Structure to design on (316 residues):
């Protein structure tokens, strides 16, 4: 096994243990199988590093109608149709647009000076730009009405008692997706893990909300094009630039340039990223060994969050 294959194998094994275990048995099985499969690892090694990710490979196979429940059937599909799989891996990105993440953003958004002008970096189809339109359930506490209802286990702080007032919403993405385009919605569906029927239903409900009042989505770079888009926010509203699980796709020098750029804007910056991607000093231990992001406001860490918005452990 080459050095690159070994690195890819470690990545798949870590994905199985830290992200998929207890969340998606199918993806845990697949990731462990790929980590031991020299032929698949060699094929993945021909791709740029960002195109080798488990979520992207599994999502592409699902998008193409392939099997993801059985590792042997998955391997046969991926290897025999590799030119097609490879073409999709080279052109697509993991644009998981999980509206459930609004549940962990809400405690911060609701506490900021209202009304808000929201600008999401890495917005995909913009489904996280509607925190004012969704309903939330924190344990026994229900906030708002209608669909979707976003469930979140909240510890360390009280549930928010209001939704934000949003007067402007915009997104920046290298490849914005269109919730009114069935093909784009099908790709978002393919990125949802196979057992997560509740997330597929949530996607459809959120896409319906967004399609009724589409956001401003701009194709552009998170450093070069952010200031111009931020300048379009209306006067009298609090600008909030936010992002979730985006910066791991960005090379470290560009991450630093982005942080410098966003700190120079008026308003506030909400980051929800893995601690290895956006580092903070003095973090407490996470609640358990599963993958957690750090929710931070203007560079100050506030809470541990789970990737799909299902849990928030406040420590700020």
């Amino acid at each position: 096994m080459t050095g690159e294959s070994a690195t890819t194998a470690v990545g798949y094994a870590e994905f199985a243990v830290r992200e998929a275990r207890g969340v998606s048995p199918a993806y845990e099985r697949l990731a462990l199988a790929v980590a031991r499969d020299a032929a698949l690892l060699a094929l993945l090694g021909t791709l740029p590093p960002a195109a080798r990710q488990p979520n992207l490979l599994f999502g592409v196979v699902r998008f193409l109608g392939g099997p993801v429940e059985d590792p042997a059937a998955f391997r046969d599909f991926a290897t025999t149709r590799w030119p097609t799989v490879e073409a999709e891996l080279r052109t697509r990105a993991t644009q998981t647009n999980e509206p459930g993440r609004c549940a962990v953003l809400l405690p911060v958004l609701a506490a900021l000076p209202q009304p808000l002008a929201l600008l999401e970096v890495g917005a995909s189809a913009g489904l996280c730009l509607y925190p004012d339109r969704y309903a939330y359930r924190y344990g026994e506490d229900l906030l708002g009405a209608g669909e979707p209802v976003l469930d979140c286990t909240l510890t360390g702080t009280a549930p928010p008692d209001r939704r934000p007032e949003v007067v402007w919403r915009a997104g920046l993405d290298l490849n914005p997706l269109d919730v009114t385009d069935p093909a784009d919605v099908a790709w978002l569906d393919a990125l949802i893990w196979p057992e997560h029927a509740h997330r597929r239903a949530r996607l459809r409900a959120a896409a319906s909300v967004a399609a009724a009042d589409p956001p401003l989505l701009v194709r552009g770079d998170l450093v070069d094009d952010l200031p111009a888009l931020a300048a379009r926010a209306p006067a009298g509203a609090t600008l909030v630039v936010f992002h979730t699980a985006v910066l791991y796709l960005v090379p470290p020098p560009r991450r630093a340039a982005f942080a410098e750029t966003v700190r120079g804007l008026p308003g506030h910056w909400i980051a929800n990223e893995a601690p290895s991607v956006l580092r903070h000093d003095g973090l407490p231990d996470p609640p358990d060994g599963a993958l957690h992001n750090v929710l931070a406001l203007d560079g100050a860490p506030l809470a541990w969050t789970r990737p799909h918005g299902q849990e928030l452990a406040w420590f700020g």
In short: The mean pLDDT is 95. DSSP finds eleven helices and eleven strands in the chain. The first helix runs from residue 3 to 20. The first strand starts at residue 116 and ends at 121.
